[in-house]
Amino acid sequence: MTQRAPTRPPESVPPGLSADSSGGPRLLDRLNQYRNVLVPAVAVVALVIYFQSQNTAFVSVDSAQNILRQMAFLSVVALAGTFVILIGGIDLSVAANATLAGILIATWIDDFGGPLAIVMVIGVGALVGLLNGLITTLLKVPSFLVTLGMMSILDGISNSISAGGPVSYQSGLLQKLVNDSTIPNVPNGALIAILLTGLATAMAFATSFGRHMYAVGGNERAARLSGVRVRSVKLSVFALAGAAAAIAGIIFTGQASTGVPMGADPSLLNSIAAIVVGGTALSGGVGGPHRTLLGALVIVLLSAGMDITSVDAYTQLMVKGAVVIAAVALTIDRRRYGMIK
Amino acid sequence: MAAMSTVSLTGVSKSYGPVHALREVSLQVRPGEVLGLIGENGAGKSTLIGVLSGTVRPDAGTMQVHGQDAPLGDPRALSALGISVVVQEQALVDSLRVYENIYLGRENSVAGRGPGRRRRLRNAAAVLLKDLHIDNISPDAVIVDLTYPQRQLVEIAKAFSRTGTGAEAPMILLDEPTSALSETEVEILFSLVERWRDRVSFIFVSHILQDVLQISTRLLVLRDGRAIETLPNDGVSAERLHELMVGTERSADYYREDEQLGARSDGALMELRGAGLTGEFQDVDLVIRPGEIVGLAGVIGSGKSSLAATVAGAERLDHGTLLLDGVARTRWNVPTAVREGVLYVPPERAHDSLFSTTSIRSNISIGFLDLIRSPWSRLLRLPTERTRTAELAKRLKIKTNSLSTPIGELSGGNQQKAVFARWQGRPCRVLVLNDPTRGIDVGTREEIYGLIRDMAATGIGVLLCAESLEEVIGMSDRIVVMKDGRVSAELAAPAIAKPTEVDVIKHMM
């Protein structure tokens, strides 16, 4: 544009007065306020009751272990996605990033030794995330497009490294870290997921960085005008998401005992479903890591339940897609969008 | 006869919460008339235009077009009745061509269906532009390639394009059409208005009094949402209009002028030298001294608002230097400014200040999170956050049951108090206020004025940019008047010798 348009007319709608004039029934308002927590909690109970009524094996130690194992991976991928969604963006490359990490750990663990390989893999994941962030902030490309492209790039890299086939390794470290149980019947992978979620939750609520994350997602302009270094928050968040995705990839490979090309990729939709069902709004600034753990539980219960009641794989795909759409439709804050495209 | 009026409004009122934007306003426009609408910022002009165009639905009142009741609050229906608006904010689609924009949504009725429609539309636009003597714009030009004044002319052509079809005389609303036009372009516009006046009635709204006086046949003065006076435009002086716009009442108590202390020392706390921001302001020298309240006055578009934003670090200077304590600061941005105690209250609360879905507590503590961090663990001390925000909310009398309530549920006044509370939680040296009382009720305004006085009394330098002249005069020790991006005057405003609004306005226009 050659010249700035004059400032908007001052009296047309005084800001702030338009939003709070609803004044509907108070009880509904109160319930509505907790809707994002109530929906997944009710869903968990309903799913357990329903699948138990269909197949009595659903509530059992075996089934619970299976659920925890699936949770371990899914909740960490979803955690990675949660950070970016909290700042109002979206990272579609988390699952592909996890796949790459899974291949890399299988490739490197015997050569470099377990601990060093793990650190390197997490470092690569963070770098990929940082790259997403740099392209988004510096070139001002929408994050969904950057990360969609990145997803394809990462898949290409994973397949090149693994030559399109599974990558095996000798080290027993991942078995110990992921599948063994320190607490009886609870695989360590699930403990790692819970620990990470706990740390992320503490970070979200009790650090300046966490608060700034919500501020950027809630109102980027207001965040900037309140003294938040918006760009550095965004870069950190993307890097953090990349690191978390890499950890998810390591858990995945630990569970599969080989590096699998495209292995973690199908979990992208599930991870977004977990985030949204948990109550983290796609518009940003609302929700949090703890919510995602609950959301992941809902998705895993649904998936495990459909397995145990012999719902075929194609039907499962349709159900999961429908769940994502329904969850977004239920939670989206339409006031934030002038138009839905 | 009243039925001869093209358009008439009777007893129109509109409130936004506690703010009365319009009170019992009536007006009539007859064919062949150009009604000039004038008033200060906040007098209700934009709301009245909104009512006439249908984008604002009034709380009370009726509207008649050609003697028949018109549907209020329905822009499409009013547009079908022949009411067109050329507004400050342009309603053109950037990526389309001129002719496509002119007939947008009316392609079928203008050029029919079937092959060759594009050509027929283009030809119609070419004829229209030629007829309107708009020679420098091709109907094929894409809007995004046009300058702002050119787009303004396209908007005007679009409004005129509707007049050709209806048999009855419709109305065109021109809202600040000349503020971005050059003199020749203004001349083109005025000759258009003159030529079409017998077919179309006009309502002309502008800050620029000379323009209003030149083109209008009748004048309507708005003040505080009321229609103060309608008078024929023959021999009315600009001075007389100023007086009508401003009124006379101004209370010294309201602004606590008895507590006005003035600057504590001559040394500058914050200073701008030869400051310029492309397209906004240039060659500005500005000094803020400790304890001094410096008012910024000017019409919308004078550059005063972006000047305030620049001092706060929200915009970056293109030219000149910014000095804090006599030291030139090159990388001046909001985070740095906040760390140095230069704190900013921006104008558009909902867009610039609030995290509306987040709690009042978080909205307050975002201003001083770095101060409640435990030095060794880097974690926030949440109990300290609770007590500190509760203290601030109490001190500023924020009315709410719980600080966990999302701030979007508060009234505008309480929201703004929370924004002030945000900055009360950390050391402040310069407070930059950009229209701090916009859309706020009278009681809260008074509290905010008291707060500003108290802060100035502790040696904080205040830069107050506001749309309300009364507020700027009442609060300031010194008033810097901006016009067309330059400082046009600097007026002393001690409590004992406040300049009148007319004194200030004459430097604004």
What this model shows, in words?
The complex is a heterodimer of chains A (341) and B (509). Chain A has 341 residues and is an all-alpha fold. In chain A, 70% of the residues lie in helices and 0% in strands. In chain A, helix 3 crosses helix 12. Chain B is of the alpha/beta class and 509 residues long. Chain B has three domains: 7-92 and 150-246, Rossmann fold (3-Layer(aba) Sandwich); 253-341 and 427-509, 3-Layer(aba) Sandwich (Rossmann fold), CATH 3.40.50.300; 355-425, no CATH class. Chain B is 33% helix and 23% strand. In chain B, the strands form four sheets. A six-stranded mixed beta sheet of chain B has the order 6-7-8-3-9-10, with helices on both faces. The mean pLDDT of chain B is 83. The chains are: A mainly alpha (341), B alpha/beta (509). Chains A and B meet through helix 8, helix 9 and helix 10 of A and helix 1, helix 11, helix 12 and helix 15 of B.
